[in-house]
From TrEMBL:
Family that this chain belongs to: Belongs to the universal ribosomal protein uL13 family.
GO biological-process terms attached to the record: negative regulation of translation; translation
One Pfam assignment: Ribosomal_L13
Lineage summary: Eukaryota, Viridiplantae, Streptophyta, Embryophyta, Tracheophyta
Transmembrane segments: none
Alphabetical list of PANTHER family matching this protein: LARGE RIBOSOMAL SUBUNIT PROTEIN UL13M, RIBOSOMAL PROTEIN L13
Name of protein: Large ribosomal subunit protein uL13c
Length: 172
C-alpha cells in the first residue's frame, strides 16, 4: 500500500473526494434576495434585448449557475412600445395564436400586435428563450413589461441592466 498523505489528512474510505459536485441549497436562491434590474427598451433590437433579459432571468451570468434551479434575477422592461426590429420584420413578422376551435387560427403582424397589446411582443420573445416546462413557467414570472417609463417596482430598488453588446442599440 502506497501512502501519499499523512493518515490524519486522508478522507474516510467511504467518501469520494474526487467526484463531488456543488448543488445550490434552498437558501441559495430565495426570491427575496434576488436582484432587480430595469432596462429601457427604447431603440433596442428585440431579439438581442430578449436574449440578454433571458440570460439574466435564467442566472447564466452567475458563477453558481445551475440549469435546473431558478437562480436568476427579476427584470423590469420599460418603454416597451419603442422596441425596434431590424429589416422588414415590422410588416412581415407574424404572431399566431389558436383559440382551440376549428378554424380558430388568428394571425397578426408585428405592427398590429404592437398597437393592440405591445407588452406581449417582448414577453413572447423572452418566453421563447426560456426553458420549456415547469422551470420556464416559473422563470417567466420574473419578467415585468410596462409601456411608458413608469413602473410600480421602485420599492425593490432596481439597478440598470448592464448590457455589454453594443449591437443591441438600433443604428440610425
Amino acid at each position: 500500500m502506497i501512502i501519499w498523505a499523512p493518515q490524519h489528512l486522508k478522507a474516510p474510505p467511504w467518501m469520494d473526494i474526487w467526484n463531488t459536485t456543488w448543488y445550490p441549497k434552498a437558501s441559495d436562491h430565495v426570491n427575496t434576495d434576488k436582484p432587480w434590474y430595469v432596462v429601457d427598451a427604447t431603440d433596442k433590437i428585440l431579439g438581442r434585448l430578449a436574449s440578454t433579459i433571458a440570460n439574466r432571468i435564467r442566472g447564466k451570468n452567475l458563477v453558481s449557475y445551475t440549469p435546473s434551479v431558478d437562480m436568476g434575477a427579476f427584470v423590469i422592461v420599460v418603454n416597451a412600445e419603442k422596441v425596434a426590429v431590424s429589416g422588414k420584420k415590422r410588416n412581415q413578422k407574424l404572431y399566431r395564436r389558436h383559440s382551440g376551435r376549428r378554424g380558430g387560427m388568428t394571425v397578426e403582424s408585428f405592427d398590429q400586435l404592437q398597437q393592440r397589446i405591445l407588452e406581449r411582443i417582448i414577453e413572447h420573445a423572452v418566453r421563447g428563450m426560456l426553458p420549456k416546462g415547469r422551470l420556464g413557467r416559473a422563470l417567466f414570472n420574473h419578467l415585468k413589461v410596462y409601456k411608458g417609463s413608469e413602473h410600480p417596482h421602485d420599492i425593490q430598488k432596481p439597478l440598470d441592466l448592464p448590457i455589454r453588446d453594443e449591437r443591441i442599440q438600433l443604428q440610425k
